[in-house]
């Protein structure tokens, strides 16, 4: 089944593909879209399989490798030989997998609050989220989501926006089976022993107050990758690309400008 994707910016711009986290929605990247297009990039955003405008029932055993193959499908559909892949959390795992499986398709990676292997704290968070889904259903599950995404002060200051996001997430909830399949996929992901095989230039970006994924996971990525730039922010939470979009965008654009090769299509 084809995936929903959208393309923005100049047709001759270097391609930047945006891969979202657990929510899977292209809309997550709205704070970055204008900045990337203004910088001359051709931007591809998509709704991941089984979410949003890419409805599908996910099979048992659905894995991050399957999600990476979905990215290849989108690159082929948009006649994109290779891209700079920007991934948030789960989307970063997709980027790591793609860089291992199809290195020629990856010009660079930007990994936002991502990881290379499971950790006990994030596992505890997902256990709690799944228990909430079991006991109370999808509404309670999405009501808790901002607690893991955003700092408390930001949530309080943007209370109406957070409420609107919760309503939207509930209205577009992908179903319990799909949500469990996606969580199972990210919990099973472990390419730690293969990090040294990834040669793509990589920006590792993390917020040190992320309540879901410890910043030490990003430090571990940076320690294991060959060509890496590490950018820590003191605050911003798991979705610091949203809560601190200005600072994140500056780091992102600086990195892309540095790794872009004039005259080489991406």
TrEMBL record:
Coiled coil: none annotated. Its EC number is 3.5.1.-. It catalyses: carbamate + 2 H(+) = NH4(+) + CO2. The keyword Hydrolase applies. InterPro entries: AB_hydrolase_1, AB_hydrolase_fold, AB_hydrolase_sf, Pyrimidine_utilisation_RutD. Keywords: Hydrolase. This is Putative carbamate hydrolase RutD. The gene is rutD.
């Amino acid at each position: 089944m084809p995936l929903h994707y959208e393309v923005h910016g100049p047709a001759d711009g270097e391609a930047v593909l945006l891969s979202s986290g657990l929510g899977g929605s292209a809309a997550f990247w709205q704070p970055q879209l204008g900045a990337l297009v203004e910088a001359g990039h051709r931007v591809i955003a998509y709704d991941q399989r089984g979410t949003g405008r890419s409805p599908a029932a996910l099979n048992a055993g659905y894995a991050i490798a399957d999600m990476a193959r979905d990215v290849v499908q989108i690159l082929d559909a948009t006649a994109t030989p290779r891209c700079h892949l920007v991934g948030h959390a789960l989307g970063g795992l997709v980027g790591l997998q793609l860089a291992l499986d199809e290195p020629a398709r990856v010009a660079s990676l930007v990994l936002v609050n991502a990881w290379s292997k499971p950790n006990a704290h994030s596992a505890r968070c997902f256990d709690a989220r799944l228990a909430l889904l079991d006991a109370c259903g999808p509404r309670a599950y999405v009501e808790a989501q901002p607690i893991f995404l955003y700092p408390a002060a930001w949530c309080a200051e943007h209370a109406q926006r957070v409420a609107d996001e919760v309503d939207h997430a509930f209205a577009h909830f992908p179903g319990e089976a799909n949500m469990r399949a996606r969580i199972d996929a990210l919990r099973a992901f472990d390419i730690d022993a293969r990090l040294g095989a990834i040669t793509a230039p990589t920006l590792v970006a993390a917020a040190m107050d992320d309540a879901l994924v410890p910043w030490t996971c990003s430090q571990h990525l940076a320690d294991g990758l060959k060509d890496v730039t590490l950018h820590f922010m003191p605050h911003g939470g798991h979705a610091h690309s949203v809560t601190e979009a200005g600072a994140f965008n500056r780091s992102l654009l600086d990195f892309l400008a540095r790794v872009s090769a004039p005259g080489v299509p991406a």
